[in-house]
Every structure is written in structure tokens, then in C-alpha cells.
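Q: My labmate handed me this sequence with no annotations at all. I'd like to see what the chain might look like in three dimensions before we decide whether it's worth expressing. Could you predict it?
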Amino acid sequence: MPNSFNSGLLVFTNDLRLHDNPALLAAARQSVSLGCVYIDDRKQTRASDFGLRGFGSNRDRFLRQSLEDLNEQLKHLGQHLYYDDGSFTAKIAELVNLYNIEAVFYSVHAGLDERRRWQALMKAFASVHFFGHHSSTLFEADQLVYPEGFPATYSKFRKNAEKWPIVAPRPTPDSLPPSFLPKQRTRIQENGRIKKSTSKGLSFGFRGGERAGLKHLKTYFSSGAAQAYKSTRNALDGWSASTKFSPWLATGCLSARFVYRSLREHEDAKGANEDTYWIFFELLWREYFQWYAHAHDAKLFRFRGLAKTSPLTSFYPERFRKWIEGCTPFPLVNACMNQLSHTGFMSNRGRQIVASCLVNELSLDWRIGAAYFEQQLIDYDVASNWGNWQYIAGVGADPRGGRHFNIEKQTAIYDPDGDFIDKWTSAPAIENLDSVDAADWPIEP
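A: Here is what I predict for the chain of 445 residues:
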């Protein structure tokens, strides 16, 4: 394909990698000169209705490591990452005007706010060519043809999706067009060098960046872990119990298609079984929620979600504080929440348990749990996070109308000897959720 535009702008968002990046490849092929940019607009983000802002320290660290790695990777291709912070739309508009940008290349995001800001830019710059590419999914948009509407359940989606072809990952360019953006003293790191985590447990294994993600992917499939995945995936702790691909998938440091290809190569070499199939099964779960977010837009964040009636829950500040601080009457929930606070990660089983507790035992609005996960999780993905919370709360894709986990039973199954609770608990569980009764009288201990 011949170069078509004198000046192209490649805007990185949730695609912080060089491999299998269709937006990057298109920009390389269609631009004579190219600016690579990342706009950090977190300071502009308004606090949620619950006072949460969207980025905890662990998530911030992982993102900054990913941006540093991307910048280093671009240098090998004769480029650099121009980093700036502020309003996303204002900063992109400024660059378009300042450098007479003819074409903008970007990856399509599942988030509604992220898609709306691109729509605003397209409207403001009608003469500029905008090229959006699906970089986070296994499938292309034209593969999802549903005359009767998007499937209401994962099962219906999966039965079709398992038959669809998945295109091979795109090649990585050998070089990139020269940049017209100035090289700047890095502003990716704030307040000096990023401090290494001193948290116990899983955090040591998570380092942001494409190279770290690819190394982990190779190590995982070189081990025997995939051959026993289904039987270990519900473990509450342990590095090799589950794939741990999610942080790199969420930031786009790993491509879902590249993970899928690596899985197939592993099956060709080591054999396919129910365990390796289950990795594909869960890649499809992730895929389902990506397109679920596109299909339902603002309903993804609505209290009643896709349901006709709202849940019978509310917001109790004291109960929420005790949930996030790991001070509930449920030791397993407390341990999971402490793990999340220290590491920015929690097992899938743990997430289901603490979400069920928040909705069913604490009678709290599910959206505050989703917002807190958004703040804390290093693998936060808008589609998977909010879709899964809707699922637990019974206002989304669950045909049963919600999930209520028996915490005592879950403890007996997944932590029978109390090892996980001992590791992640620093204080005994409390007996009372509330310090006052309905009439605001203190509750005696």
C-alpha cells in the first residue's frame, strides 16, 4: 500500500504494543511522517458519584511501566512516544491544528466515553481522515451479525463464536516513518523513578510493558500449567494457577489474537485437552464482554443495567468502607480485599465472592464495587469489569438473574486450611456491619 498522507498521527490508548497492532501497521504504511502520542487525561477525570477517581497506585505503576516500555520499543523503529497530559480531545485537537495532521490512526475502545471523544473529534475535524481499528478483540465487527440483536447470554454467543475464523496476528513493522513531534524529556514518570512494589505475593510477577507480557506468555505456555488450567484456575492465590494474561491484555501490551495463536501452538506441541480448551473458553468470555459493551453503551453503567427493575440495594458508606478495608464479618472476603489493596490483583474466584458479598450480604449498589475495582485492578478493562459486575448483580448477561455465593461454602472449598486467610489478614473479622441502627442509635459491641 503506497503512502497516502504527508502527516499521520498515531494515538495510543489501550494498545500499548508493537505486535499485532492494526492501527500501528496502518499508520506505518499510509504516512510519510508520523507522530506517536499518548494523552494521559486522568487528571481531568471527574470523581465518580462515590468519590472514586479511577486509578490506584498499583494500576498507575503498571500503566507507567507499560508506557516506558512502549517508548523504548519505538526507539528501535526510529520513533519515540510523545507523552502529554490534560484533556484528551483538547490535546489531540491542538496537535492536529499545530502540525496540519491529515490522518489520525487509533484503536477502537469498548468504553462509551472513549468512543464519544473520538466522535467529537471527527465532528470537529471533518477534513481529517480518522481510521479506527479493532485492536483488542479476536473478531472483527463485521463478523458479529445478529439480525435479532446481540446475544443476551454468553452461551448463545459462544456457540456461534467457536465456529468463526480468527485472523492471524498482524506483522510488526520493521521501521516506522520519521516523527515530526519533538523529543521531550520524559514525563511518563512523575516524582522521579517508579518505586518497585514492596507488596507481598503476586505483585512481584506483574511488570507493565509489551516485553514483559510476551515473556510471561512464552513462559506460561512453555510450562505445564496450561495442561492443568481448568483444575487450578479457581485457586485464590499462586502465580501459575491461572494464566495471569489479563493485566497485559487490558492495557493492550498483549494482543488477544497473539494469545490465541500461542495457545494453538502450545496445543500442537503439547496436545489439546479440556484444560487448554478452557483457556479459549475464557478468551471468548472476554470477547463477549467487549462486544457487549459496544452493544449496550450507557446501559453498561446503569443501576438496573439491562433489567426492567432496579436491584433492591443502596449505598451505605460505613459498609462500603469496611468492605474495601477488609473489615467485614467474612474472613475470606477480608483476605481477598486485602490482597487487592496490596497487589492490584485478585483471582477471578475471589472477585466473584467479594462482588456477591457486596451485593447480597452488604446490600450495596453494585456500581460502587465496579468503580472500586476500576480504581484498584491493574487488569481493569471497562467491558469485562462492568459486564461481570452486572452478571453478579443480576442486571446483565446472567440468565439466572444474579449469583449469590455462600461464603462459608466457598471458604471450605477454596481455603479449607485457612492458608489464604492467614496470609492476607492482619485483623480479626468484625461481628457487626453497622455501628448505628436504623434510628441512628449506637449498636453495642
